[in-house]
Specification:
The chain has 170 residues and is α+β, with helices and mostly antiparallel strands. The protein has one helix and eight strands; from the N terminus they run E-E-E-E-E-E-E-E-H. The chain has two domains: 8-76, Laminin, CATH 2.10.25; 80-170. It is 52% helix and 16% strand. It starts with 7 loop residues before the first strand and ends with a helix. 11% of the residues are buried.
Length: 170
């Protein structure tokens, strides 16, 4: 069997006849005699801004006018000074928008930090005030308790003196 276009001859086996393996060569057919038109399917894999040209055993991609690249990847090419100026203006606008968004994000972050720091200070002040208030209440309670204890002691002392006095009379 004579395979064409670098097709590989695969010998016959008990279950299969000999055949030509054309895979990856850009050809098909029993003897790899038919060129495959890769451009018929999905523009051959070329960029949408490119043309696909079928050649024997393969294909070529070329970017359309106004675009540059290898045909798989095509980018708009500025052709006149006004196009270049317009491209620079677009880039300048994009940079300006990016910087503006960055500055706003930074400002928002600073405001959030200040807000939470202020809340923390306010909270800590409230805790201190609450602590001082609790201390004052505890001191007042201790004072009242001491007065009560002193009053009870004084009362007991008077009663003891009265008992002593009555015992002395007897």
């Amino acid at each position: 069997m004579n395979c064409l276009n670098n097709g590989k001859c695969v010998d016959k086996t008990e279950t299969k006849a000999a055949y030509c393996d054309c895979l990856g060569l850009g050809y098909n057919g029993s003897y790899c005699e038919n060129d495959i038109n890769e451009c018929e399917i999905n523009n051959g894999g070329c960029n949408e801004q490119a043309t696909c040209k079928n050649i024997q055993g393969g294909f070529e991609c070329a970017c359309k006018d106004g675009y540059s690249g290898d045909g798989i990847s095509c980018n708009l090419t500025p052709t006149s000074p006004s196009d270049k100026n317009e491209s620079n203006q677009t880039t300048g606008i994009e940079i300006g928008v990016g910087v503006g968004v960055g500055v706003l994000a930074l400002l928002l972050l600073v405001l959030l930090i200040l807000f939470f720091l202020r809340r923390k200070v306010t909270f800590s002040c409230l805790v201190k005030l609450s602590f001082l208030s609790d201390m004052k209440k505890n001191n007042e309670k201790k004072k009242r308790k001491k007065q009560r204890v002193n009053g009870i002691r004084a009362n007991i002392f008077e009663k003891l003196n009265l008992i002593d006095f009555q015992l002395l009379k007897v």
